[in-house]
Design goal:
Shape: globular
Structural class: alpha/beta
Oligomer: single chain
Strand content: 15-25%
Number of strands: 13
CATH topology of the largest domain: Rossmann fold
Number of helices: 14
Order of helices and strands: EHEEHEEHHEHEHEHEHEHEHEHEHHH
Number of domains: 2
Distance between the termini: 11 Å
Radius of gyration: 21 Å
CATH class of the largest domain: Alpha Beta
Strand order of the largest sheet: 3-2-1-4-5-6-7
Helix content: 40-55%
Largest sheet: 7 strands, parallel
């Protein structure tokens, strides 16, 4: 079997989110003996391309030209057994071969004002909807990374539920963790809460920072560490920290590699992830694998993944977030109970399982 994969998410210097999914899918398929064709606009520099993978460079910076012209031509000339688009879009609409689409979320559609910073918000939202709808109807099978995302797809696009297969993504625990990150930010002797879900408006970091006004009244030395990179939005978050007087206890790490990220998870008191919208939530399963308690916003996808082993808070209230942090710091027994309950989920979200189920989807299509 030869599987074609959209390699654009792993081209950059910084691989996050969908890039991690694509990278792990590629390596997982390779380990399972599946040959892959990886379609990119340039040579990826941050990953080792497996020996049984052919890299195909389609030189264009325009994503629509890539998908609808260059990729279409390449797939038509040298068709793989199946083509898998990992970005939620990106299907060549005139290609007649078997197509699989992974959808991580449809937040741009379900979240109000998602395109408010766009030059033409209404047009941007309609274009996203049209492109997503076209990809959904073109794909023979859709892989959704959560039941919540599947429900949202069906609700917004009115397609049959049996066209969508829920396959949770897994994680690969790094063989080594880089604890130099702890020294770099002066955290050797610090108590700190970690937010490692990335930086954007929907991550609810404004309220999380505001919650530390109340947290630091009880625990004045406890810090909040926020990972991820978003230069413009980070500036506004820093202003909020300064305005509320907690800037000394807020640390922005910027983008960090996964071996550093896992070291931060390992050394943290616990994870606080009060996001307003998500398709899944990798920080949850990272916390599970390293035996860390976690505080979560009360949203459907988090209830789906972690209903039995997380402390849920009202994400719309900085005081509620603060109460959750203070309660978890106060109650060591609660921490132990959450860790004990989450331990049953260890290895549940594994890439071996993700790959096996994904290959099953391929085989059903091309049988």
């Amino acid at each position: 079997m030869i599987v074609g994969i959209d390699g654009r998410p792993i081209e950059g210097k910084k691989i996050t989110g969908i890039g991690e999914y694509t990278k792990n899918l590629l390596h997982g398929l390779s380990l399972a003996g599946i040959r892959c064709n990886l379609y990119c606009t340039r040579v990826p520099k941050k990953i080792n391309i497996p020996k049984n993978t052919k890299l195909k460079i389609l030189k264009t910076k325009n994503k629509y030209f890539f998908e609808q012209i260059f990729l279409y031509q390449e797939l038509s000339k040298n068709p793989p057994d199946i083509y898998h688009a990992t970005t939620g879009l990106g299907l060549p609409l005139f290609y007649k071969g078997p197509l699989v689409l992974t959808i991580h979320d449809i937040i741009p559609i379900t979240r109000k004002n998602y395109f408010k910073n766009s030059k033409f918000p209404i047009i941007s939202k309609k274009l996203f909807f049209i492109n997503t709808k076209a990809a959904i109807y073109k794909a023979e099978k859709i892989i959704s990374i959560s039941k919540t995302t599947k429900i949202n797809i069906i609700k917004n696009f009115d397609i049959k539920k049996n066209k969508i297969k829920v396959i949770y993504p897994g994680i690969f625990t790094p063989k080594k963790m880089n604890f130099k990150i702890i020294k770099r930010f002066g955290l050797e002797k610090s108590s700190f809460v970690l937010n490692n879900g990335g930086i954007s408006e929907r991550k609810n970091l404004k309220r999380l920072i505001e919650s530390f006004v109340f947290v630091n009244k009880v625990y004045p030395r406890t810090k909040l560490v926020i990972t991820g990179e978003n230069t413009l939005y980070q500036k506004s978050l820093k202003k909020i920290a300064e305005y509320t007087g907690v800037e000394k206890n807020i640390i922005f790490t910027g983008f960090i590699e996964r071996d550093c990220l896992w070291a931060l998870v390992k050394k943290s008191d616990f994870i606080c992830y009060p996001s307003e919208d998500e398709g899944f939530g990798l920080p949850i399963i990272e916390a599970v694998e390293l035996g860390k308690p976690i505080i979560l916003s009360d949203i459907p996808v988090f209830r789906e993944i972690a209903k039995d082993f997380a402390l849920f808070i009202n994400q719309n209230s900085a005081r509620s977030i603060a109460r959750g942090i203070i309660e978890l710091k106060n109650k060591k027994l609660l921490q132990k109970n959450l860790i004990r309950k989450s331990s049953y989920k260890k290895n549940f979200f594994s890439w071996e399982k993700t790959i096996r189920k994904t290959i099953e989807v391929y085989k059903k299509i091309i049988k």
